[in-house]
């Protein structure tokens, strides 16, 4: 009979310890923080490489010339083709983008604002009133906003000094822009007790959701 | 890697993923993704337009925001000089009324079982043609809108069918014009509110529901600056309730319902004192009531009455007029007295006074003049048909009017309807009157058709605003004007016009206005009151008036609230948020009264009681409000619909079905009586 007591047990493989755990952890963190978010985003270009700087500095335009409150309190966020065509019915510069805009939009009667990608586009069930978030309202207490543009930039990308539109990043699952504000950002003000009694910034559902 | 190592690796990976935002943001994204499911309704964004037109509900000029052909909102038109951007609650509800569920969507025909069945338009047109042909010479036509030029088409159609029975719904305008013409006025009575520096309104809530409200409010804005400077116009309101006009008036003089004539007689008597103007009619009338006796009968003090007289005497451009809530005429007597007072003050055909608005000739050869139509009395017609003294017409056309709801049982509308062989209702919204008709045809809403507002009652000058379609007719609605012209063509009748825009162009030409310009701008054409033809005012008709009845012990004041719509609209969707909750309880109206009155009747706040009139007993909830004069209860009209939609049905009760209508001696015009009692429930 074989003497089993003399068998040599294999030494325990330590190939492990915390190594595999750490490798898995680090790998997952890299994937979770960097790879997956970038995979989820699709980068898109605006239909025209609009140059804000040229319009403000060279043409002397103000933000309000294109982005303004209508008489009834609604907001004209994007100018339409007709508004642009009031200057660009014919090419006034050597810009190729201007020529393309005239040929493809002005001449063909295509509406540019139907194709423009809105960085802050909200779902249909969210009603945001620009009139209720004006300098007259917010700026009364928040004196840190010296210009309307500063107030706008709380939510919007600061595009006034850009020479071409920022890349539009669209979430492949939700189809919203990566810059679209989400509820916690709204609630930063709406749920702030400091606003109660001094503003109409209630956090009740129907204030924003109709 | 061994099994254990792999498990450790997987565990690390899991912890890493959980510690990263990947899972959580993906869940968040998935939540957003659900908003993109195909069956979820989407906003239909399109071209954004602001179209100028006018509200056909009350003549308010509008700017309507339209996006992709869909009406979004009706706002005031700031560029319009007549209203200066003013907006009334009724006009503001135009967009909601366009889409609300009470819209008549397809032609409906009543079957033998009393139920309605959808039919197609070709079948409806066939019935329309057949019934009109059969009713030759026996057609009656009722419309609610007295300010439309399209009435020329409707009245010409009625006349071409061998009948003169074209009616407006009863109104103040009918009684005021009767008085005006009886006393020598040649055109239409006008009230130059804009140029007056002192107004006495007896019962006319002209800043809320009487006359050209948006214009009147614009005048108020101009004459009452908020910078502390002096007001350019004094307003005195005499009535039972502190309504919106009384609330901003310089003085509210409580006058019990049913004593308006006595109040005006008191003023006339006071004016006649020391007056060089001697007229047997005035001296005879003013002798009936001294200021003290008049004040006592009305419920105000002699001092209040004297103060009003003093203000009128001291003003350079005073104006006195009388009125009621919509459709609650007080007969011609009050208007005759108001005209007499303006005459005493030298205010006939003067800037800021009572003005004679020149009668406009009908646009079509067979059309009837507005003045002639106003002389016809729908309530008298109904009563005569009901009691058999007048042959019932074979066919009745009703254009967006709701007499079944709005007129008291004394008008005998239902009895009259029962004798009419066939009734066709042209309606944008399903109403109590639709439910009594044999055929109900969907007509275009005011924002879906060409129409106009021509010198509405309460105007101080000839004015005209064009309405144009801001969107295509919804459902199967058709513009009534075009439908009647087509029907006339089918029947071989020549109305003298090919379509409604041509008719409106005729109106523009008659006024000397540029049709295209007014169509595009939405501006209101206004004619200056420079070429007055001075009518010779005769006070003699006053002598034929009976002495006013004794003031009632207790009176019922029926008032309207623009948020409750009108009898043809029901309560517009969302507008009931502007009506207090306690007014909207099912089957129950609210009787407002002051505390002293309630205590006298043994009632307390929020207790149940009954309003008793000759027409029955209506349960009410007592609500204390010190803005009601003593011995008077105020009840809101416009509630208690049995038709329309869920926003209107069973909200409150319909006081109009309990009010009593008497016929004024001499004129046979309807007079809404304030006689009522409130008893414990």
Describe this structure in words.
The complex is a heterodimer of chains A (210) and B (681). With 210 residues, chain A is mainly alpha-helical. Chain A has a domain at 45-78 and 116-208. In chain A, 33% of the residues lie in helices and 6% in strands. Chain A has helices at residues 19-40, 52-58, 81-88, 96-106, 112-115, 148-152, 183-190, 205-208; strands spanning 41-44, 68-69, 75-76, 168-171. In chain A, the strands form two sheets. Chain A has a two-stranded antiparallel sheet with strand order 1-4. In chain A, a hairpin with a 5-residue loop joins strand 2 and strand 3. Chain B is α/β, with parallel strands linked by helices and 681 residues long. Among the domains of chain B are: 3-36; 108-172 and 360-445 and 471-499, Rossmann fold (3-Layer(aba) Sandwich), CATH 3.40.50; 552-680, Barwin-like endoglucanases (Beta Barrel), CATH 2.40.40.20. Chain B has 23 helices and 27 strands. In chain B, the strands form seven sheets. In chain B, strands 5-4-16-15-14-6-7 form a seven-stranded mixed beta sheet, covered by helices on one side. A six-stranded mixed beta sheet of chain B has the order 20-24-21-23-22-27. Chain B has a four-stranded parallel beta sheet with strand order 11-10-9-12. In chain B, strand 2 and strand 3 (70-76) form a beta hairpin. Chain B is globular, with a radius of gyration of 28 Å. The N and C termini of chain B lie far apart (90 Å). The model of chain B has no long low-confidence stretch (mean pLDDT 92). The chains are: A mainly alpha (210), B alpha/beta (681). Chains A and B meet through helix 1 of A and helix 1 and helix 2 of B.
């Amino acid at each position: 009979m074989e003497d089993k007591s003399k068998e040599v047990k294999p030494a325990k493989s330590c190939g492990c310890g915390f190594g595999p755990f750490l490798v898995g952890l680090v790998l997952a963190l890299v994937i979770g923080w960097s790879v997956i978010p970038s995979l989820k985003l699709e980068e898109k270009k605006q239909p025209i490489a609009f140059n804000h700087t040229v319009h403000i500095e060279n043409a002397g335009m103000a933000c309000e010339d294109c982005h303004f409150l209508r008489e009834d309190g609604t907001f004209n966020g994007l100018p339409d083709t007709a508004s642009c065509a009031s200057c660009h019915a014919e090419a006034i510069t050597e810009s190729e983008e201007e020529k393309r805009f005239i040929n493809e939009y002005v001449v063909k009667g295509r509406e540019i604002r139907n194709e423009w990608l809105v960085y802050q586009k909200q779902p249909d069930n969210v009603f945001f009133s620009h009139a209720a978030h004006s300098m007259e309202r917010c700026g009364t207490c928040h004196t840190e906003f010296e210009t309307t543009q500063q107030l706008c930039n709380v939510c919007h990308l600061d595009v006034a000094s850009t020479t071409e539109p920022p890349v539009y990043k669209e979430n492949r699952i939700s189809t919203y822009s990566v810059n679209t504000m989400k509820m916690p950002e709204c609630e930063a003000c709406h749920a702030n007790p400091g606003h109660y009694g001094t503003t109409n910034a209630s956090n009740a559902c129907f204030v924003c959701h109709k | 890697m061994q099994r254990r190592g792999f498990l450790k690796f997987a565990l690390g990976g899991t912890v890493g993923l959980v510690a990263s935002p990947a899972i959580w943001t993906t869940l968040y994204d998935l939540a957003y993704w659900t908003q993109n499911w195909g069956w979820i309704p989407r906003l239909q964004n399109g071209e954004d337009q602001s179209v100028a037109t006018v509200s056909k509900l009350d003549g308010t000029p509008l700017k309507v925001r339209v996006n992709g052909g869909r009406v979004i909102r009706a706002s005031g038109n700031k560029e319009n000089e007549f209203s200066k951007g003013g907006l009334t609650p009724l006009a503001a509800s135009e967009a909601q009324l366009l889409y609300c569920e009470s819209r008549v969507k397809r032609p409906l025909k009543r079957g033998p079982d009393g139920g309605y069945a959808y039919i197609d338009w070709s079948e409806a047109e066939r019935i329309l043609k057949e019934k009109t042909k059969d009713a030759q010479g026996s057609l009656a036509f009722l419309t609610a809108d007295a300010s439309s030029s399209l009435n020329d088409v409707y009245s010409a159609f009625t006349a071409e069918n061998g009948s003169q029975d074209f009616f407006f719904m009863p109104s103040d305008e009918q009684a005021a014009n009767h008085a005006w013409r009886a006393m020598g006025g040649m055109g239409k009575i006008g009230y130059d509110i804009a140029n007056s520096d002192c107004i006495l309104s007896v019962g006319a809530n002209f800043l809320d529901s009487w006359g050209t409200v948006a214009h009147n409010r614009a005048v108020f804005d101009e004459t009452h600056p908020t910078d502390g400077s002096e007001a350019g116009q004094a307003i005195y309101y005499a009535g039972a309730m502190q309504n919106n006009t009384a609330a901003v008036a310089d003085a509210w003089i409580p006058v019990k319902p049913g004593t308006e004539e006595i109040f005006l007689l008191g003023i006339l008597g006071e004016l006649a004192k020391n007056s060089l103007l001697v007229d047997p009619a005035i001296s005879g009338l003013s002798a009936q009531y001294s200021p003290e006796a008049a004040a006592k009968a009305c419920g105000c003090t002699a001092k209040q009455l004297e103060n009003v007289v003093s203000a009128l005497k001291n003003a350079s451009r005073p104006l006195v007029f009388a009125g009621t809530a919509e459709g609650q005429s007080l007969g011609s007597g009050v208007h005759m007295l108001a005209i007499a007072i303006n005459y005493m003050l030298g205010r006939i055909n003067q800037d800021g006074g009572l003005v004679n608005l020149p009668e406009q000739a009908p646009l079509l050869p067979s059309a009837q003049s507005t003045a002639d139509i106003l002389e016809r009395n729908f309530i008298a017609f109904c009563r005569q048909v009901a009691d058999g003294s007048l042959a019932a017409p074979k066919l009745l056309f009703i254009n967006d009017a709701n007499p079944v709801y709005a007129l008291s049982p004394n008008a005998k509308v239902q009895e009259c309807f029962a004798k009419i062989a066939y009734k066709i209702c042209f309606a944008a919204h399903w109403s109590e009157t639709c439910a009594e008709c044999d055929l109900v045809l969907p007509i275009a809403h005011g924002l879906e058709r060409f129409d106009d507002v021509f010198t509405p009652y309460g105007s101080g000058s000839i004015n005209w605003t064009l309405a144009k379609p801001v969107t295509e007719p919804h459902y199967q609605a058709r513009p009534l004007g075009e439908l009647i012209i087509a029907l006339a063509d089918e029947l071989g009748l020549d109305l003298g016009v090919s379509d409604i825009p041509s008719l409106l162009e005729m109106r523009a030409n008659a006024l000397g206005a540029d049709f295209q310009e007014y169509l595009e701008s939405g501006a209101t054409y206004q004619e200056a009151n420079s070429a007055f033809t001075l009518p010779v005012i005769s006070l003699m008709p006053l002598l034929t008036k009976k002495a006013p009845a004794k003031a009632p012990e207790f009176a019922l004041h029926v008032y309207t609230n623009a948020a409750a719509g009108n009898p043809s609209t029901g309560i517009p969707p969302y507008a009931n948020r502007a009506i207090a909750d306690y007014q909207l309880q099912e089957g129950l109206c609210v009787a407002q009264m002051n505390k002293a009155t309630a205590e006298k009747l043994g009632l307390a706040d929020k207790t149940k009681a009954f309003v008793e009139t000759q027409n029955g007993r209506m349960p009410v909830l007592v609500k204390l409000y010190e803005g009601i004069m003593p011995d008077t209860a105020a009840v809101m009209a416009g509630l208690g619909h049995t038709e329309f939609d869920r926003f209107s049905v069973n909200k409150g009760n319909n006081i109009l079905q309990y009010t009593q209508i008497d016929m004024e001696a001499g004129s046979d015009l309807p007079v809404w009586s304030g006689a009522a009692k409130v008893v414990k429930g």
